[in-house]
Amino acid sequence: MDTKPQTSVLFVCLGNICRSPLAHGVLHQVVAETGLGHRIAVDSAGTGDWHAGNLPDPRSMEVAARHGVDLSRQRARMIRPDDYSRFDLIFGMVRSNVEYLARSAPAGSTGSVHLFLKYATGRDVDIPDPYYGGPGGFDAVYLTIREASEALAAKLM
Ligand code: 4NP
Fold this sequence. Notes:
Layout: E1 7-13, H1 19-33, E2 40-46, H2 58-66, H3 83-86, E3 89-92, H4 95-104, E4 112-115, H5 116-121, H6 135-156
């Protein structure tokens, strides 16, 4: 019998249309593959609200779909004050996200904020913004996120 409590994870980027929706979908897939799906809850949000209500960027949806991950039920939203305590682990994609999250967390928030790749893999590096680049950038982001999600799932087991 699995007695470990559920862990909740929130991925955060700038717009919540490129990187964090991809991380949300990929970690969801990885935990389903490893049989941890019932123990890990995943969501994503942005530090800005410019794209609120929108589908993920078509380039994120396309690279995800090619790897069997469906992002079509996701809609962009901005992070809310209660997210800082509703989620156990809050991951920024880049240092500036982590700085924003640390600055914006209401006093007494219980979620812990980390740079995603550093927490998952030990590599203290950002996941660069693919928004203004070509589709190749999204392939690179997918691979980085897939590898880090596998490492994170192993840590959470
Ligand atoms: P994301 O990418 O933060 O990975 O969702 C971006 C999306 C939109 C913009 C920048 C980055 N933007 O400037 O609108």
